[in-house]
Structures are given as structure tokens and as C-alpha cells.
Amino acid sequence: MESVPVRCPACRREHAYITPVYPCPCGSPTAPPLMRGAPPALITHRTWNDDWVSVRCHSCGRRDQWPHPELCCPCGAVLRIPVRPVAAHGTTPPPTGAGSPGPSHIPLPRTAAHPRPSFRPLVIRTARDAVDTAALYLRWLGFSDVIQPQVRPGARIDLRAAGIVAQVDATTRPTALRDVECLWLNALNTSVSSVLFSLAGYTDEARSRADGLAIPLFVLDLTGTPQPVNGPADELISVGPGQRGPVA
Fold first, then answer.
1. Where is this region: Disordered (predicted)?
2. Structural domain of residue 154, as residue ranges?
3. Domain count of the fold of the chain
4. Among residues of the chain, what percentage have pLDDT more than 90?
5. 54 and which of 86, 105, 124, 163 could share a cystine (Cβ 3.0–4.6 Å)?
């Protein structure tokens, strides 16, 4: 793994940043190529294009979009680590406007009280992999006591932890309004919060209802990197467990 020195522009603290490594679909480890000597950018506003970077696999040549490397300084600043553009490896960058559309919500700065290491994704090949990835992500967020029931209960709860229940929709259809409302009712009955992960995204009605109920929604891609798709999800990333509001 590549390591580069990074100086926080806010507090001038020095860090040794290790490049996050992701598994390419071909199976080879892939990492964004960092620009040594380039100063990091202080993140004060997020956009879809800035949050993602094109990375080319050196084994198969495949180009994919990966999360732009970031570092949370103990002073509270969130830093974006400069990455060499994919064109530097002999390929052409995608045209402006190409790729996935940006999220309909505005992501919040990730200002967790305690900086987290980079999330290590798990490639999703089966429905069980999707549940395992969601469990890993919840532990990364700070839910250390995540339990995965061996048999999925009738309530369709896939994961449990102190103060939260989670559902993982690994089907090929967008998660519907009924799924959001059922999850909320299950959480309400036990006075805990809830979170939902989906492989195929969400219907407009489900997104709207989840926003009203303050349910964090995440989309799982096959590389195993959950992405927040609404404000409550951004809040959960920012503050972690134990600091969100009570169940509505």
C-alpha cells in the first residue's frame, strides 16, 4: 500500500496517509494513484464529481469510479487527497457530465468525533455478501455489537445492534415504500432506530417516506462500498451511533 505524507492546512499537523485499496471485479487490488507533494484540499462543500475519481486497474485495464481518498484530521478538518488523473496512465478521462448522476441530496461534511480508518469494502457476489457488507459498514460506523441472525426472521430484520436494526434488500428491484414503512414499524416497536441498504436503489415514494421518517438509506454497489442517498444517511456517517435523534 502506498503511503504519502499529508499536512493539514488547518492545524498544520503531519499525517502518514495510506492509500485505500479496492478489489477490481477482475480480482486484482486497485488503488487511486496519489500525487506526492501536492497539498490536500480542505473540504467545505461536496459535489458528486469531487467525491469520486476514475481509477484504472493495472491488471485488466478496467476503469471504474471509486471514492476520492479523504483524511479526517483530529482537528476536525476533512481533507481530500490529490489523485493523479487517469489520463496520466494513457487513457482518456470521461467527458464532462458522463457517468452516474449526482445524488438528489447535498452530502454533509463527515465530521465524526473520532476519525475512522478507510472502509475496506467486500465484493458482493451473493445476497449473503450484501448482508455481510452492511454488517461491516455498520461496525465501521461505530456499531461494534452487530449481530447477523442465522435465519432471517419474519420481520425481515437482517442485522441488529445496540439501538439500531437494519434491513438489506439484495433483490434486483428498487426498494419500495412498503419496505421502508415495515422497517420503521419494526424499529418503532422496539424503540430503536433503523437503517436500510439496497442493491437496486429506491423508488421515489420510498425515498420521500424515508426522508420524512429520518431513516438512513444506503445503496450497495457490487464493489461493496455503501453510498448514502439521503440526508439521514449523511448524518449517520457524520455523527455515528448514539448521537442521532430518537425514533420518530
1. 86-114
2. 127-239
3. 2
4. 26
5. 86
